[in-house]
Amino acid sequence: MRRAPRPTAGILPGFAALLLALLTASAATGCGVIAAGASSGGAPGIVADIDVTTAVVRAATAPTFSGTRVPILMYHRIEQPPADGSNAVYYVSPKKFEQQMRALKANGYTAVTLREVWAYRHEGGTMPEKPVVLTFDDGTPGQVLAAAPVLREMGRPGCLMVLVSNINDSGHALSLTPDMVRRLIADGWEIDSHSMTHPLLAGLPASELRYEVAESRRRLQQDFGVPAEFFCYPGGSHDADVVAAVKAAGYLGAVTVEPGAADPGRPYLLDRITVDGRHVISTFLRDLQHYSADP
């Protein structure tokens, strides 16, 4: 864990009182920060878990980002995984998602949007010291009902990479209603396209490719008044023609399913880190730390 700056004599009594209060509360409840490398068995320097009542004292002025790559986490369904374990990699339970978000916060990560990453690289924008993008593919109810409240409490945004055909009033278990999408927009989420119907795009005829790429953006702009500036390749499928279609449709960038942290200098080939809901928190953080390291 990053050490806080040594307090000056003028503020030492107040800091000591706060520290004493935290230690007293931790002793009374049996809760507190569990550092990996101690009892959690993770890598040194990682806070693998943190109780929701634990205060984290940080410097008044946070350092800014000095790396070259930004980690983008890829989520799918925020729901209990099926009992038979099928497709378990695509599921993160609501409880584990909340644990992951609190672990990110405890380790100094700040959620940002793809637009903020683009602005950092292309418009001279700034980034927090440890940025991370939270992307949610397809658009399913658990992302709104389970993930959004956690991020709302923390005041941080997600990025919905929505399949436009998933937005309807059918009540289907894999669908979002238009009001659900508007709820995310009100929470500050970024809304981006994952195509109209989720075909593998490489090799599609030009007319179908334009429909999936350009029409999906137009529909999101028309129906929700959002810029929809980023695209998510369905199944990660892309080639030179697909990338050209994404650029022609006016997108600023696109995300892949290739493992790794994103290089903002390659905006149409932004790699991501798959979040496997079967992993414990220390493994989740270790993967993030591994992929985030600049080459």
Task: Describe the model.
The chain has 295 residues and is of the alpha/beta class. Helix content is 35%, strand content 15%. It has helices spanning 12-29, 94-106, 114-122, 141-154, 178-186, 206-224, 240-248, 281-292, and strands spanning 34-35, 47-49, 72-75, 110-112, 131-138, 159-162, 190-193, 230-232, 253-259, 270-274. Strands 3, 4, 5, 6, 7, 8, 9 and 10 form an 8-stranded parallel β-sheet that branches. A two-stranded antiparallel sheet has the order 1-2. Helix 4 (141-154) links the parallel strand 5 (131-138) and strand 6. Helix 2 runs parallel beside helix 4 (141-154) and helix 6 (206-224) packs parallel to helix 7 (240-248). The protein is globular, with a radius of gyration of 20 Å.
| Nearest-integer average pLDDT | 84
Which term fits the overall shape?
Answer: globular
Compute the separation of the termini in Å.
22 Å
Helix and strand element order: HEEEHEHEHEHEHEHEEH
Biggest sheet overview: 8 strands, parallel
- Helix proportion: 25-40%
Radius of gyration: 20 Å
Helical segment tally? 8
CATH fold description of the largest domain: TIM Barrel
Low-confidence runs:
1-44, 50-60
Strand content: 5-15%
Write the layout of secondary structure elements.
Layout: H1 12-29, E1 34-35, E2 47-49, E3 72-75, H2 94-106, E4 110-112, H3 114-122, E5 131-138, H4 141-154, E6 159-162, H5 178-186, E7 190-193, H6 206-224, E8 230-232, H7 240-248, E9 253-259, E10 270-274, H8 281-292
Parallel strand pairs: 3-5, 3-10, 4-5, 5-6, 6-7, 8-9, 9-10
Antiparallel strand pairs: 1-2
